[in-house]
Amino acid sequence: MNEMDFERLALLKESKNITQTAEMLYISQSALSKRIKALEREIGKELMVRSHQGIRFTPAGEAVLSHIEHI
Asked: Are 48 and 12 in contact (CB under 8 A)?
């Protein structure tokens, strides 16, 4: 996990939408989704639940966000 990942997760927390976050970062939705999946594999936990209404962070995702806020 690097600083760009911190930014991605912080923006996802705000927007609760992968497509909107990808647009804010000037990357494709597919690229952002792939990076999220890679982070989840790296951490070994699912960070968010995806639905048509947007995303919701899991308890593991909330813990990562809390850690990011302290950095």
From this structure: yes
